[in-house]
Design brief:
Elements (H helix, E strand, L loop, with lengths): L4 H16 L1 E3 L8 E3 L3 H16 L3 E3 L4 E3 L3 E2 L6 E4 L6 H14 L5 H12 L3 E4 L2 E8 L5 H10 L4 H18 L1 E7 L5 E8 L2
Antiparallel strand pairs: 1-2, 3-6, 4-5, 4-10, 6-7, 7-8, 8-9, 9-10
Helix pairs in contact: 1-2, 1-6, 2-3, 3-4, 5-6
């Protein structure tokens, strides 16, 4: 798998449509409705959509990864998958929820939450190869994306598409580097490589 903007967009649409659901007010007048979910619930749905998208993130291992004393490892060029997609999800959810509470239309708090979330991507593995290191996050341009849609009176789907594109661009430009232990006994460093 790899990062899929369309998967993220669909997840955001589903999350926000859930947020629009209403229910009858218990003990209220006939026809009186209230939101079915709280803003905190919707923040959780959005965080779930982003984490589900992020769980498909991969990086390609770039050497030098060698089998001692000097043979190149088969891990060079291998793709490994993000093992940490759920680790920072609660912090991301908190940032989104705080943004809702603050009426944060430019999504500054969500941007900060995504930067923090990307920084939790510290381990990637697959095919017997493991890379442990750090991800250098690139901030998503959420405010520009969301404001453009709002200024043009776009639909919920337009907003989700613009925000998904901004998040996808941010993830795709973020870089991972770290130490690698390969299945063939190789070890070394993976040079900075973009999330895919």
């Amino acid at each position: 798998m790899a990062l899929d903007k369309d998967k993220l967009e669909k997840g955001l649409i589903d999350a926000l449509k859930k947020g629009e659901e209403t229910q009858s007010v218990s003990g209220g007048e006939e026809g009186e409705v209230e939101p079915k979910y709280t803003e905190g619930d919707v923040a959780g749905f959005i965080a779930d959509a982003i984490a589900d998208y992020a769980s498909d993130a991969e990086v390609m291992l770039a050497g030098p990864i060698i089998i001692p004393p000097t043979a190149p490892s088969s891990a060079v060029g291998a793709k490994v998958k993000n093992d940490m997609a759920d680790l920072g999800k609660s912090a991301l959810e908190s940032a989104i929820s705080a943004g809702f509470a603050a009426g944060d239309a430019p999504l500054a708090m969500m941007t900060t939450g995504i930067i923090t979330y990307l920084a939790t991507f510290t381990m990637f593995s697959g095919g017997g190869h493991t890379a442990i290191g750090g991800t250098i996050p690139i901030p998503p341009m959420l405010s520009m994306a969301s404001m453009d849609v709002q200024n043009n009176e776009g639909s919920l789907e337009d907003w989700c598409s613009a925000v998904a594109s901004a998040i996808h661009n941010s993830f795709s430009m973020s870089m991972f580097a770290g130490a690698v232990v390969a299945s063939d006994g190789g070890a070394g460093a993976s040079l900075p490589s973009p999330l895919q």
